[in-house]
Every structure is written in structure tokens, then in C-alpha cells.
Amino acid sequence: MEPLPQHDADREAAERLHGLFQAFRGAFFGLRVCLENTLQTGYTRGLTYDDAQLLLHLSLHPGCTLQVLADAQKRTEPSVSRKVAQLVKTGWIVRTPDERDGRFVRLYNSEKAERAVTEMAGKAALVFRELQTQASDLEIREVGRILQAIENLARNVKLRPRDGSLFD
Q1: Cβ of 131: how many Cβ atoms within 10 Å?
Q2: What HEC string does 7-29 produce?
Q3: Domain boundaries, the chain
Q4: pTM tops 0.70
Q5: How far apart are CA 149 and CA 107, in angstroms?
Q6: How confident is the model over 115-135, as pLDDT tens digits?
Q7: What's the first-to-final CA gap in the chain, in angstroms?
Q8: CATH of 23-145, one of 1.10.10.10, 3.90.1520.10, 3.40.190.10, 3.50.50.60
């Protein structure tokens, strides 16, 4: 018996999605290697990927609270709190009481952290310039648009327990 056309279309869609995941995995691996190389030189020696993300956010948003930092990183407040405590202890982050409301603590990068962020930004710019030699600005923007669409889709996907279908 011949498979139903819908089954062929489903299989083709699944194969295309798998190919897309493979491409993203390869791209993410390449970006991660670039970042890891950046984090193991100069001022940034010893920082993890998560550390770098926190320091970059604090560089762009100095004085934010722990809750704001956790929300921006899409992580729980307790996990970010533990990481911030570690970075305070090692001299990367400075905690300062809020001048208007003593219940809040503001977070800032130390001078050492700002030097590291500057170094990371310089190396990231080199990587991005290399990317621009291999892809046009239009292609780079299109990839960004597609990734955003996939992220939006992922936020809305829900599996129904009984029938296994997507979307409510």
C-alpha cells in the first residue's frame, strides 16, 4: 500500500527541520569556538560563557538589579545570584546599595571587567568583520530575522498531551 501524501509531506518537513537544526548546531559551534578563544586570552582569562554574558549585560546596563539581570539572561534569580556572588568574590562585579531604596542592590562591572568587555568587543568585531567577508549585510539580517521567527515560534509551541498536535 502506498503511503498517504500527507505522510510524505510530513516526512519531508521533518527532514528539512532536522537539516535546519544541523545547520544551527554547526553555526552555534563555530560561534562558541570564537567566543571560547576570546575568553581565554588577556583580561578575560578564566571567564566562562555565562560570566561573559553577565558582564556584557552589566556593561550595557550598569546599575541594574539582580532581578533585571536574571530576566535579561532568561535564568532564575537564584542561579544568577550564585554566579554574581562568585564574580563579586573574584573582583569582576561590584555591588552597591541603591541610593534611593536601600532594599535594592545595584550591580556594576569592576574596572577589570570593563577592560575584559572592551577586549571581548574588539575580538567580536574582528569575527564579525570576517563574517561580513563571507555574507552580505542583507544575508546577515535575513539570518537574524529567521532566528527571531524561530524563537517566536518556539515560545508559542505547546504539545497537547492527548493528540500530540502543536499549537493551542
Answers
A1: 15
A2: HHHHHHHHHHHHHHHHHHHHHHH
A3: 23-145
A4: no
A5: 32
A6: 999 988 888 788 778 878 888
A7: 33
A8: 1.10.10.10
Q: How far is CA 108 from CA 30, 64, 166, in A?
A: 30, 8, 42
Distances (CA, A) of 148 to 57, 77, 153: 20, 25, 9
At 77, the pLDDT band (50, 70, 90 cuts) reads: very high
Which tens digits make up the pLDDT trace of 145-168?
A: 988 888 788 777 765 555 555 444
